[in-house]
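Appendix B. Chain record.
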Amino acid sequence: MILNAKHSDKSRYSGKVLLTAIMLVFIFVVLAVFMGYGVRVVAVNKCDQANAQLAALNSPQTPKDKPRIGVVKAVVHNSSSSSALVDETIVHVGDTIHGVTIVAIQNNTVEFSKAGVTWKQAMLEAPHSAWTNPAKDNSHPAK
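Structure tokens predicted for this chain:
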């Protein structure tokens, strides 16, 4: 007895195509999970670093009789108008706070000037010594 069954070419490949499609979907899901986990780890690490820096600035080892001034807490950089949060005050280029003038605001840093001294300070970085030093009075030359 001879069976003359006609098989189409499509039925031979449909199993392989389906298996390949399932494998590709599985690979994309695995990649998406790993990429998502990696992004979360980086974000958490940056948040942890910022919290650690802020905690160091507010640590009990900091003298309590002298409040710490000049801490850049945030920067909003825009091509037309940038601003920064210094201590509890929002400042712009040209503003003066605690006798210190804001010269420039970049992505993560603010450039300050006081009594001829210019410096850059990053967010949550310990304040420059010029913040607490009194400005020199150049109007009366020393004798």
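Further analysis of this model is presented in Appendix C.
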